[in-house]
Amino acid sequence: MQDLLYFSQQLINGLTIGSTYALIAIGYTMVYGIIGMINFAHGEIYMIGAYTALIAITGLATLGITWLPLVLIVALICAMIVASSMGWAVERVAYRPVRGKHRLIPLISAIGMSIFLQNYVHLAQGSRNIGFPALIQGGFLFGSPDTFQMSLSYMQITIFITTLICMSALTLFISRSRIGRACRAVSQDLGMANLLGIDTNRIISATFVIGAALAAVAGLLLGMYYGSIDPLFGFIAGLKAFTAAVLGGIGSIPGAMLGGLILGVAESLTSGYLSGEYKDVVSFSLLILILLFKPTGLLGKPEVEKI
Amino acid sequence: MLEVKNLSMRFGGLLAVDQVTLDVKEREIVSIIGPNGAGKTTVFNCISGFYRPTGGKILFRGQEIQGKPDYKISRLGMVRTFQHVRLFNSMTVVENLLVAQHRHLNTNLLAGLVRTPDYRAREKKSLERARYWLERVGLIDLANREAGNLAYGQQRRLEIARCMVTEPTLLMLDEPAAGLNPAETRDLDQLIVSLKEDYNVSVLLIEHDMSLVMGISDRINVINQGRPLASGTPEEIRQNDDVIKAYLGEA
User: Which UniProt keywords apply (chain B) (predicted)?
Assistant: First the structure.
């Protein structure tokens, strides 16, 4: 019984982290799916989302507004707007001018953008950790207090529900809306989409904006979950989300969702049963194994060479 | 409608197209033929904006278009296909036709979220147009299949339907009969003629199937090794000695 509770606890923790990885991973996978480049500044967009949310929460608190649902919604909207504008601007400034050039050039540009954004936040917000108020507290406890107690916090439930809503909204958007339809067309054959008169630049911008908005949601959620943020907050999360995207098959949205969850659970089970220090070893070994046996990732399709 | 004057395209030391001149008038089917490697597709790529020609002029409905980006040219009402089918394979048949009408649609995100009457009206109209063309090319029963799963001949017809929903005035087809069986080629033949007669579309065609070319073309241009060899009606081309030599080799 106790073992089962312990296992469930690791599973819940893993799914919590994993679902936020998935939210961030979608940004990587969508951009890769459409223009075949890796947006290494995406982790920074997520970090900026977290900072914006924190600033909004602090601002509301000084105004004396503390009603939780309102605070959360305002923080979420601010974070999404700022991060989306940032995602849009990054594409315009750093990626569009070098699009279609040799593959390495946009990559270097992305790394430069990432360094720039990190340092910008260092300067503007200071490099120390900043405490993120734990707005959602409490939770359920299972099991007897003398042995092991499994906890499922309201924060974790919030993360699950929010992620679920975002994923469903995105899936609907991609499959039903006109822009979603155009996104799919552009990701399959950009040249043909262009010839049919689709404004591919606009669709590419939309991809960056959507990815950034989802990363901002993850930023707010993980900021509250961990309780503190710093300018390097986006680096590890970005790396993990990128791994999740590759694991699930980069370019595939369901793949990013699945990859995020698998990575989160694998990390948490390693921390729970082996040691916290091994969790990165295990998650990256998992990545290597999957790439060895299925180079396209779990749900990725083999790339057909376009002539 | 389309006038190509002294078009040249040089790739490094190779002169792939040398002084090609041709024109397409309203409601006319004009073919480009020639041996493999003659430069036919290069001419297409220059006209549709894939390549920036190194010499010559291209006028489309009075406007000079040489060197303009492909998406701008396509918006003037020119649409093309490629030698190999380029559908959006993992989208359904009807989605392929809807996405081709994207620029005629209101893509404002807010309008889409609240589904304004205008948004819905246009969506409905584009769906009707898609349905019309699916019926026209005989694919209506397959509307919700993934395009990549269609038979090859069906994919070819879907490609033409996808061109037609954009309401072009000039349709450029690069070897549309490649890989089709004789029955499918006959259907294609009738479809192309009907596009001209019923929808007032001009067609510029590259094709190796001589019965198709001779049967439907109003005029034919022959290119050999990048240079124009002959042009005229199918009857004139059939009797042209240079053309016979180029195709059959000299005795």
Answer: Amino-acid transport, ATP-binding, Nucleotide-binding, Transport
